[in-house]
Amino acid sequence: MYLRTALGGSFKAASVALCCTLAAGIATAQAAAGGEVSASAVEMVNVDVGTQKVLRQKRPVKRVAIGQPKIADVSIINSRELLISGKALGVTNLLIWPGDGGTQPTEYRVQVGFTSQGAANPDLAQAQVSPGVGISGSTPTLLAHRQAELSSVPPAQPGGSDGASGDQANKVIDRSVVGIDTQVLSQIRIVEVNRTSLQEYGINFLHLGNNSTIGATTPGSSTGVSAVSKAATTIGSATGFLPVANAFNFVFANEGSLGVLSLLENKGLARTLAEPTLLAQSGQTASFLAGGEFPIPVPQGGGGTSTTVTIQFKEFGVRLNLTPTVLARNRIQLKVAPEVSELDYTNGVTIQGFVVPGLIVRRTDTSVELGDGESFVISGLVSDTIKNSVNKVPWLGDLPYIGAFFRQTSISRANKELIMVVTPHLVHPLRRDDQLPPMPGQSIQDYHPSFARTMFLETGKFGQSDDSGYSR
After folding, report:
1. Which residue, 377, 413, 422, 458, shows the most beta carbons closer than 10 Å to its own?
2. pTM > 0.85: yes or no
3. Coil, strand or helix at 152
4. Minimal CA–CA distance to 366: which of 418, 446, 422, 286?
5. pLDDT digits (tens, 9 = 90+) for 356-400
6. Contact yes or no for 414/195 (Cβ under 8 A)
7. Buried b / exposed e along 62-77 (16+ C-beta atoms within 10 A)
8. Is the distance from CB of 141 to CB of 328 less than 8 angstroms?
9. 14 DSSP assignment
10. CB under 8 Å to 290, separation ≥6 — which residues?
11. Could you give the CA distance from residue 325 to residue 332 in angstroms, rounded to a whole number?
């Protein structure tokens, strides 16, 4: 027990020996008078760590005593005012003896923590923190809740005097709520644009016999060239006479001379758009897959005649895995892993007669922090590939103009752009009496035309506008 006293109108801090003597005298006086501190008038005094608070009394103060000086300190300012200083997180008691002849001390419960710091930390103004007991009330953010949780942990007692282990001492009751929405609707937009261009040309010629002919073929439609001559010569595609088999081929023949001119210019544009949307609760992981599974044969056994083939399935399509965490009303942490894959038979393999396609995959895996309705470009890719090739006869292929008859040229270029954008929204469920929005394709379901309309008026729209069958 730490005790302060006032003697002769001048206030002095008692020494350790005097504290013990007075404490013993007080205990003797209390025992003689029936001895217990009045429990009906216990009042809570809240003070922050590192701050001071003035406690005013209606009666003159004679002596004061504090239970745990390491948690709070008390000083006598004058006969009716005390100064309480918060030193460490915890709870202790304060006894005040009146100086007007009363014998029963007034007891106060002093709580040092973050329970009265609305001005110092507005986020904890609605939270009630009791160190060593628990948390109640509400906090506006997860960060404020964490601060309140740390404040509720009782201070470590020197030498383990409380008789409890460290784990037991850190256990507190959390009755608080975090006043934020917990439903997050995440929109992921994945856009990929591919642009390709190709130029190829080549010239072949051959002398045959008499007669003449001329012709032109579209890409891939010619498997060979035949000349009307005495020898009836036919040159198939396997001979490689066609400079570019998948190009436009122009055939010229005059008096036994046969020539083929291959020309091709190709430009392509492809755009892939995926917009998966997923609703998840704060702190929970949700997954989404719009696609399918394709079989993969897997040989089993040691080979030879004992080999068996089992089938395994691998997923492909639009996949989304995300874990949102709502930190505050205007702050969301989002761990997101979108993926878009499609079958690629060009790069497939053949296993025991089974054709297994490859996969073209675009994926990313990251964590971002943003506000409600804000967007982040979480990944982007721009690639530019150029391939040039020339096959020519040495020296002859380098001659101007004439060299075109002795070389084959190919120029290809491919540009790819890939962007992934994430946008989270805090959402609320529809109320019980709210009308649900129309489902995609609802107009198709409600379309029941008559025979006359089907026969004479139906144009293929089936009672809907161009976009009414899709959601937006």
Report:
1. 422
2. no
3. coil
4. 422
5. 899 989 888 999 999 888 998 888 878 888 988 888 888 888 888
6. yes
7. bbbbbbbeebbbbebe
8. yes
9. P
10. 276, 317, 318
11. 6
